[in-house]
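Hey,

Quick one before I head out. I ran the complex with glutamine overnight. Inputs first:
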Amino acid sequence: MKATRKITLVVLAVLLLAVGVCFAGCGKDEGTLVVGTNAAFEPFEFKDTNSPSGYGGIDMEMAQLIADELGLKLKIEDMEFTTLLGAMASGKCDIVIAGMSIKPERLENADFSTPYYKANQMIVVKADSTIASSADLKDKKVGVQSGTTGADSADALAADTANYGTLTVEKYRKGADAIMALKSGNIDAVVIDEEVAKKFIQNNDGLKDAGTLDTNEEYCIAVKKGDTEMLDKINGVLDKIMNDGRLDAIIEKYIPAE
Ligand code: GLN
């Protein structure tokens, strides 16, 4: 064999090896969709040891569908709700699916997909409470999860002193902490997203609802600000699964029509 041919073969072999290593290693990150969530928001996201991913709920099943449609593996990053958009901006996750309502302040830090679910706030009280509607929250102590639209709604009521007197808002790190405070009598009511409120009422003794605050919110998937490529991909899949009934089927599984 001539020396030049030998060199060509060696170069080829090295190139092939490099390509092989790249397929094994480099593909890993690009092949995964990292979804940020806060898995304390049943029926949208919660820890579920029976599920292969370790998480259950509408958003988590939708996340799996999106990953499948995009030919990617799914990885869930569970974190505090208030840290989600910052974490995405700093690259800890690619998108956020967390029952997150679109609102102007959030649009400054992220882009939002087509809405996939409509929601209102619900008032949760103890079963023996005389509070029957938002009007009865006058002078009361209302608990919320800080950094949420439920907190915004309660703050808006508190600012309306003509109708709500000395209504005060207590902020908790988690919805479940607000519910605990309600059960132990530290507060008079909790304002939280309707379907999540219903789950808390279902899963805890001695609670009932006292009606809704019709905030007409829209849950959207958040993507990095300016990442139009990702936004287009997500909207493409949402469009598909909203039209072929797959999203409705997931919602119906967790929120059966009454
Ligand atoms: N929908 C509410 C919001 O966007 C609550 C979301 C949540 O706590 N996961 O603020």
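Residues 16 and 105 are 50 Å apart (CA to CA).

Talk tomorrow,
K.
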